[in-house]
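Bug #77: duplicate submission created two jobs. Keeping one. Sequence:
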Amino acid sequence: MLSPYGKMDDKLNISFLKEICVPDDGIQTGPFGSLLHQKDYVPFGTPIITVEHLGENRIIHKDIPCVKVEDKERLARFLLREGDIVLSRVGSVDRRVLVRKQEEGWLFSGRCLRIRPNPEFINSSWLSWFFGLPQFKAYIRRIAFGSTMPSLNTAILNKVPIYYPNRPEQDAAAEILNALDDKIELNRQMNRTLEGMAHAIFKSWFVDFDPVTAKAAGRNPFGMKNATSKLFPDKFVGSEAGDIPQGSVVRPFSFITTIHGGGTPKTNVGEYWDGEIPWFSVVDSPSESDVFVMNTEKKITQKGLDESSSKLLEEGTTIITARGTVGNLALVGQPMAMNQSCYGLKGHNGFGSYFTYYSIKGLVRDLKLRSSGSVFDTIIRSTFDSIKIVVPPLGQAQEYEKWVAPLMEQIKLNLVESSTLNKIRELLLPRLLSGEIRVNQSKRIVEKVS
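Kept job's structure:
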């Protein structure tokens, strides 16, 4: 049968969203400004999520404001339970997350809507994946009101049609999709750990100068083999940047990098676009822990590359966004081009990709302060000459590359695996719903890939 979301299996049940939620407050708007003000937020207490914390079906546990005990008690009807689904009420109305056990008892803000499915009819996890269907997202965007700032309300959501199989089929499908999602999340957590290790080593060696401090005190640098320890001196010397390790020098950042600009093929020339070459823009910036950008939203053709000012960047180049949204970083995971709002920074004079990446990462705050522009912030090429860094002897930098290369390669492998799993997940749900494949078939597909 046909539905607002495309072809569906004739055997599916059909209900309005309100009918498969718990009675009375199954769909609820968060507390508006009269009930909760930004001044009520405190550093520690009960977390309250807003639109910024709605990730890909998971709540983003970063920079979450909190409220005091008395506010939590006052707003008790807005407390979340495991299995609730939170949607964005304004702006990106197609964003949603499933509340997990660790987030039970948290609150949600007035910029969100909370859905509480009735377990007699629907598996919450299954419904959250239904909300993730591209066809469902497109439908929600269409029915939202407001041309400048799309918005949803309970009246609109009450009448959203839901097509769903019987409960055993829901449970089985949700189990498969959750298994894929759990593996993707495990990769994400592993990447956070690996990236943290690579960053910590850089900071220890080249910012805090821990090996030099240890040797100056007559101690062996912690966790460092003798061959590596010998690369570091045992004393500091004065410089314009303060005391620095003997053998290090103060140089402009451009000393360790070659700087490349980007470009955009003409958008009205069709043969320049939808090719095989990834083309980076700010929307493709990876999360901080993922580091690498492997794929991009848009791709260009070889002709588009050849007949524009864009250049093909080598794997290992650091991209930094330099106009408007300033300071987003990405390591190129495969050869790609980029637009003119970015710079590509490639290590030279013997300095490698990872040393360059973490060097610029430590300068982002300074670069933002030095960015200029009458309409929006802009980093210009001369900015890289104006910022000076402590450059270690080349042997230390090259040793760092050896230490962190296995960590960074594992991050890249995890990203490739997660991308494959995500594609499988995106393919399975619409086919399960349409009846094109059954749960048993999808299990075999997942097992084969695993």
